[in-house]
């Protein structure tokens, strides 16, 4: 857990804003360290965490979290952490084994064009009654983490379906009022309207998406990663854009993070974005205001 980043975001495990959709992006860099941070942060905050790990195994996240002082095994045993191991569950769908049950959450792999109905229903069912833990233990607000949502594009899911998925996850997890959401890709009853009782949720969503190469328009490609990034940026309340240094490789500084607050303040003004340089250590990361590091001016 990175105390300097907590200070930038004005958050701590004892006090943080609920109802946020935090988007983490990277370009020519690796923003995975921020996913590890938010995972450890919300577990220490005693939140009920649902982690959709679509690119790495549970052992990978466990080894990194262990260095940050958090045990994922203990969190799972207590019922605080629910982990969907996308790599493993995908095999149960694509290469079914006799006597084994395929993961319903990954049903979209059978027909990616059908959208992410099964994955959303998995999220909704696991986070309903999220405050109730095993052994009568109570947890704080629920948190959905996704690493990384852009991999769904390479699996044949359209960018529109991914944006629908993120929109309804945000409406379900981040809202505190009872809402009735019209479904574009999730049909639950004859009226096509699914009542979502999120009265006791008001949790947070953290998603990572990646864009390879230089920033450019997806010419004539509505399903490309750039358009997915634009759509997710429009939905989020905070965006953390991780990039390499414009000056090139530096041994002492690994890259820069632009923090953008997209929610307006009480006076109707938007908080200006801020740019920080960072260096990842074995057990954490350091953040510098641009120009304050002796390594890069």
Automatic annotation (TrEMBL):
A Pfam entry, by short name: ELP6
Pathway entry: tRNA modification; 5-methoxycarbonylmethyl-2-thiouridine-tRNA biosynthesis
InterPro entries, A to Z: ELP6, P-loop_NTPase
GO CC annotations on file: elongator holoenzyme complex
GO biological process terms, semicolon-separated: tRNA wobble uridine modification
Residue ranges that the Swiss-Prot or TrEMBL entry lists as coiled coil: none
Family assignment from sequence similarity: Belongs to the ELP6 family.
Protein name: Elongator complex protein 6
């Amino acid at each position: 857990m990175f105390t300097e980043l907590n200070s930038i975001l004005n958050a701590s495990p004892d006090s943080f804003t609920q109802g946020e959709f935090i988007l983490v992006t990277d370009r020519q860099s690796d923003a995975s360290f921020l996913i590890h941070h938010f995972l450890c942060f919300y577990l220490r905050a005693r939140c009920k965490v649902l982690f959709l790990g679509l690119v790495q195994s549970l052992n990978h996240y466990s080894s990194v979290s262990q260095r940050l002082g958090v045990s994922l095994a203990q969190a799972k045993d207590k019922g605080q952490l629910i982990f969907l191991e996308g790599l493993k569950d995908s095999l149960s769908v694509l290469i079914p084994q006799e006597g084994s049950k395929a993961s319903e959450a990954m049903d979209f792999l059978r027909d990616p064009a059908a959208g992410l109905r099964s994955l959303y229903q998995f999220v909704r069912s696991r986070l309903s009654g999220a405050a109730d833990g095993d052994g009568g233990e109570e947890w704080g607000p629920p948190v959905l983490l996704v690493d990384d949502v852009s991999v769904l594009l390479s699996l044949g899911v359209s960018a529109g379906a991914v944006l629908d998925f993120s929109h309804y996850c945000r409406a379900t997890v981040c809202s505190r009022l009872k809402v009735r959401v019209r479904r574009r890709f999730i049909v639950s009853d004859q009226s096509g309207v699914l009542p979502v009782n999120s009265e006791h949720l008001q949790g947070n969503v953290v998603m990572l998406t990646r864009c390879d190469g230089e920033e450019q328009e997806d010419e004539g490609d509505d399903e490309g990663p750039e358009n997915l990034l634009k759509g997710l940026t429009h939905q989020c309340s905070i965006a953390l854009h991780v990039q390499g240094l414009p000056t090139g490789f530096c041994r002492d500084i690994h890259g820069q993070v632009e923090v953008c607050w997209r929610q307006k303040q009480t006076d109707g003004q938007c908080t200006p974005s801020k740019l920080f340089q960072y260096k990842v250590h074995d057990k954490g990361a350091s953040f510098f205001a641009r120009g304050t590091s002796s390594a890069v001016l």
